[in-house]
Amino acid sequence: MTAEEEKAFKDEIEILSKLDHPNILKLYEIYTDEKRYYIVTELCKGGELFDEIIKKGIYSEKEAAKIIL
Q1: Is residue 54 exposed (0-12), middle (13-18) or buried (19+ Cβ within 10 Å)?
Q2: How far is CA 53 from CA 24, 29, 43, 66, in A?
Q3: Which pTM value belongs to this model?
Q4: What confidence tens digit (pLDDT) does each residue in 27-60 have?
Q5: At what angle do helices 61-68 and 49-56 cross, to 10 degrees?
Q6: Domain count of the chain?
Q7: Is 42 helix (H, G, I), strand (E, B) or coil?
C-alpha cells in the first residue's frame, strides 16, 4: 500500500467511525499490527449484494432500493 493509499484508507475509516445511520454499516473498533488492519463492524446478514447483482444482471432503481433497505 502506498503512503497515499494508506492515508485515503485511514481517512475513510475515520469518517466511517463517526457515522451513525441505520443504512450505513456501523464500525465499532479498529485494531492494527505490523502487517494488517482488523476492522470490527456490525453483523450484516443476507449475503453479498454483489452476488445478487450478478444473478439478476440489471436492476431498476426501485428494485435496488428494495435490496439495500
Answers
A1: exposed
A2: 19, 29, 21, 13
A3: 0.61
A4: 999 999 999 999 999 998 877 778 878 888 888 8
A5: 150
A6: 1
A7: coil
